[in-house]
């Protein structure tokens, strides 16, 4: 996994600090926008790969939610906060897990792709494709670089723990290894300068 976990970035491994940092950088706004793009309906099955503290649940209707993350502290925080609203699993999702899980209406990866090296990202997309029902959607959000972002936004993005931050075309290229139907859009946050890429991939 391509991310920095030393110095100030290590502090973000603590769930409370991580959530506070997300609030400071405007990620609450980004998460609400992302939830609108996810567009989950009541009763949908939702798989969240790299769910973190599962705060996206604050913006989702009553769904059958499965969240996977390798951080014990994040999963513990999610379980404590949301309890029976979701199924929280502390492990790296793999193909064997999918054998015992239902097919999903939506698979999401929120702030995950830019932490992954290319091979690991390709594997994530393959897993997402396998997990989806026919016509299901994979939706992701990540910080990104863009020709139209301002200097402050580019600086803040560059300080992220993830070390594989791409532009929109770069993320689409990763997704195209598993999906044929891939669309995305850049969003520029103004009040706290930041740039997000939201992408949607549809299974046939």
From TrEMBL:
Q: Which residues form the Methyltransferase type domain?
A: 47-138
GO terms (molecular function) for this protein are: methyltransferase activity
Q: Which SUPFAM superfamilies match?
A: S-adenosyl-L-methionine-dependent methyltransferases
Which Pfam families does its entry note?
A: Methyltransf_12 (PF08242)
Asked if the Swiss-Prot or TrEMBL record annotates the protein with the keyword S-adenosyl-L-methionine, the reply is yes
Top-level taxonomic group: Bacteria
Q: Which UniProt keywords apply?
A: Methyltransferase, S-adenosyl-L-methionine, Transferase
InterPro entries in the cross-refs: Methyltransf_12, SAM-dependent_MTases_sf
Mention one GO biological process in which this protein takes part, according to its record. methylation
Is-annotated flag, keyword Transferase?
A: yes
Gene3D superfamilies recorded for this chain?
Vaccinia Virus protein VP39
Q: Give the protein's recorded name.
A: Class I SAM-dependent methyltransferase
Which organism is this protein's natural source?
Answer: Cupriavidus pauculus
The organism's lineage is:
Bacteria, Pseudomonadati, Pseudomonadota, Betaproteobacteria, Burkholderiales
């Amino acid at each position: 996994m391509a991310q920095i976990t030393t110095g100030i970035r290590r502090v973000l491994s603590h769930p409370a600090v991580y959530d506070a940092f997300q609030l400071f950088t405007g990620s609450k706004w980004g998460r609400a926008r992302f939830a609108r793009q996810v567009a989950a309906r009541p009763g949908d099955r939702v798989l969240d790969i790299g769910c973190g503290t599962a705060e996206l649940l604050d913006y989702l209707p009553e769904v059958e939610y499965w969240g996977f993350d390798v951080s014990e502290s994040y999963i513990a925080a999610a379980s404590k906060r949301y309890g029976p609203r979701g199924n929280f699993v502390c492990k790296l999702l793999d193909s064997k897990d999918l054998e015992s899980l239902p097919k999903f209406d939506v698979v999401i990866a929120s702030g995950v792709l830019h932490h992954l090296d290319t091979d690991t990202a390709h594997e994530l997309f393959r897993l997402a494709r396998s997990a989806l029902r026919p016509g299901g959607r994979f939706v992701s959000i990540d910080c990104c670089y863009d020709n139209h972002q301002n200097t402050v936004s580019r600086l803040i993005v560059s300080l992220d723990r993830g070390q594989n931050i791409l532009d929109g075309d770069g993320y689409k290229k990763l997704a195209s290894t598993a999906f044929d139907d891939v669309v995305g859009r850049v969003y520029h946050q103004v009040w706290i300068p930041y740039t997000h890429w939201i992408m949607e991939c549809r299974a046939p």
